Amino acid sequence: MLNDIFIAPFVDMVEAPDFLMQVLWEGLVSGILYALIALGFVLIFRSSRIFNFAQGIMVVFAALTLVGLFALGIPAWISVGLTLGVMFVLAVAIERVVLRPLVGQPDIILFMATIGITLFLIGLGETIFGGENKVMITEELGIPTGDTVLEPFGGLLILQHLDITVVVVATLLVLALLAFLNYTQMGRAIRALGDDHQAALSVGISLQTIWVLVWFIAGIIALVTGIAWGARAGVSFALEVIAYKALPVLMLGGLESITGAIVGGLMIGILEKLFEIYWGQPLLGGNTETWFAFVLALIVLLFRPQGLFGERIIERV
Questions:
Q1: pTM score, two decimals?
Q2: CB neighbour list of residue 147: distance below 8 Å, 6 or more residues apart
Q3: Residue 228: which residues within 8 A CB-CB, separation 6 or more?
Q4: pLDDT attached to residue 201
């Protein structure tokens, strides 16, 4: 038993390095998508102290909107632009109808409000688009669907062009987001709200404008994530469950840390894939990816409750 846990998996990695590279690549792709979703949670929490339970359904709603607009005969990339417009209108509506009347309410009230937004979007999505599975318009968007075969160490490594595109686009989006937060006036305002709410408001930063902006950015992230996951697994309300894999990323990296969201997403994506292949399938029969990330995050929280990159909070009584 000890051999199966501590020796055999590492021997397999050394004896088949090409297969190890395949596992690491697939984990990297999943990790980048986890990190992307987690960024949506982090941005909204930093600017408003609201844990956005609706981020998962926003991924589904954005993907359904894109596919639905294309089904009406609208060209693919025009449908993308219109979907972004829908996500902006949604951001404005959430700020005006839900968040603004609840300013100053306890955090639990705001959290419950995002659950209400989730249920509303589920009902609206099912009413407009129906509940059946749909196919993402991958080829119509120009996303490549072939593969490239490499032979590292005399073995075999298959890189799906879709996965390569996802990695490149997600990386560019993260870099663009970091540049926006660090080098633009609105980005610095978002960071200021995250650092000190009262001080930021006292110098004239508009809370309402920032809320609309971060919810719209979360909508952009939701659309990109919806396209990526939809191309891999189809478009359905099951994508909402996939989006909640970002929760252990937040637990691991910290709710307020953008760096934590990125690093945590990559760590969980890679580690859960390694565990599934080298330990989960031989010892536990597989299907460990459904719970491994949550167990890993729980272990980290036992020793560092604020997450790996969260700030330690010290309260003096």
A1: 0.89
A2: 158, 159, 160, 161
A3: 33, 166, 169, 170
A4: 63
